[in-house]
Records
---
Amino acid sequence: MRSIQSFFKGVYRFSSSWTGTIIIVLMLIFFVAQSFVIPSGSMKRTQLIGDFLFAKKFAYGIPIPHLPWLEIPLLPDFQGNGHLIEGPRPKREDIVIFRNPQTPKRHYVKRCVAVGGDELLYDNKKLYIHFHDLTDETSIKQVYPHAEIIRLRDKLWVVNPYMHKYPGIQYKPEYQGNSFMLMVQSYRMNRGIDMKPVEIEELGKTLFYKKVEPDHYYMVGDNRDNSNDSRFWGSVPYANIVGKPWLIYMSLEFRSYDWVYRGIGGNRDHDKLSRVCSYVDLDSKACEDLWNRQRYTVRWGRVGRAIDTIQLEEPIE
């Protein structure tokens, strides 16, 4: 009995020390939960700029721990898949935190729209997906009862399959044009995009096409016309999967007027500015004053909300 008491006293003394506290906090960050902040509008309005959230690090296995801020791996990749312990893979519709394949030190948050073996066609305002494991209309309707199904190239494709379920999915560019035209321009200027143009005879036009590689995941922002995502830099391998957003613990509107109006910081948001300045010109001192009155306000309706439930509701701002 005394040995048990001595053990717990020792644990208590260790956890109360600075060294013990730091080690415990790091273990939680490495293996249980980590804090992230949404920095851009690519997931608007499912997740907003200024949402502070906890992510479950164990949702898809245990990723190799990295030193916070410096993002230096602390252990070798023994299994060659970026994880100490292999786990379940991301599913379609999941919102996932991952490392960008081109810039692995940066974390991104997007929705997984397709998995390995799926095929995608992208048109202006339309994302067509051929699910490799749903081969007939009956099986598709069981999963997506409101789906619009179309036959192209002798395969069944579902048009924007997730928009009926998740109200935050939208096409709202914060610039002149849209992501489809941006992809066309990038392709013509040889800047490199992931999807390739193909002629679709049934529609009489050219769309962008992609087949997702095995054990890879296609990540697209819910605000599809204002998102830098897999359409431009490719599928995300399992090795880059970090975790799954879990809970919003704070949501703060911290952006300046210059940021939301002129795009300083790369995240212009005239959509939000229009709601604040509904009766005055956006480019006016009156609008700037109205914005500054509500700057640094807490979005209390989002605080303490689980991502799995809030994404099914009309967006809360």
Note: The first strand starts at residue 33 and ends at 37.
---
Amino acid sequence: MTDTYKALLGVREDSGYRVEFQQLSSEQIGDGDVEVAVEYSTVNYKDGLAMSDAIPIVQKPSLILGIDMAGTVVKSESSRFQVGDKVLMNGYGASETHNGGYTERLRISSDYLLKVPEAFTTRHAMLLGTAGYTAMLSLLRLEQLGISPESGEVLVTGASGGVGSVSIMLLAGLGYTVAASTGRLEESDYLKSLGANSVIDRRELSEAGEMMQAPRWAAAVDSCGSHTLANVIAQLHYNGAVAACGLAQGLDLPGNMMPFALRNVALLGVDSVHAPMALRERAWQRLAESVDLNKLEAMAVEIDFDNLPEAAGQILQGQIRGRAVVNIAAR
């Protein structure tokens, strides 16, 4: 009997787009020089977009979805990885141009893989996933510009989500004073347990604001975009900076040049999909050195493999707090 593997696919045809579970043969689980028994994956905002097709993420007629995965190497033709190695994947076009992590077994190029840091299990790696990795990339960008705990208060928008939750934990752990912006004020205790010093209603930032506003923040990590990002820029102190890593509110940026010209502020783009391997390895090593595993577990929301399509709508509506981890190997 031929082994088959359960996978969640996005299928694009002339009649439209659909998401469905399929049983795939060994020949259908991807191309590459490494085969991985997938143990865990995640649900990120981009996964929600891919499953809903709100933005046409899937660029091929049929792809396994999931931008993250972690598991154990079971076959390898790569000199970089041996059978038994624990590996992870974030981005690199997964569920866009090649198969992703919502599958029990994945064959993939070794160019897309890195070893799970020794401090983490594969579950820890996916409790962080792209969201945690993006949070660290954002922190690295701010540090490159000289932002430090002594610079002043740092704002985190979209604070109840994955990037926001991990950003608060990381910044607080390094000694920053952190303000959290959220549309779910009932989560204030949760955000303060991660290290937020204060919590503000996202409505303070999500509507059109003045071109220049009273300075409030030394820096920010923004996963919202649109009016929120424009207002954050207008509220930065002189030499302040915002690491922009998401678009939960929108793709637009309805701002102006005044904060840049008069306060010398910086808008820092953060890309997690195509970041070079050296930067990925640096980010994951910093995560291994910085993450409080107890706080990380406190963020965890378990999503059953069968319930992934439902989770897509929940994450797009901001109904999932913290990090959604999927136990692929639980069957």
Note: The chain has two domains: 5-116+299-330, 131-269.
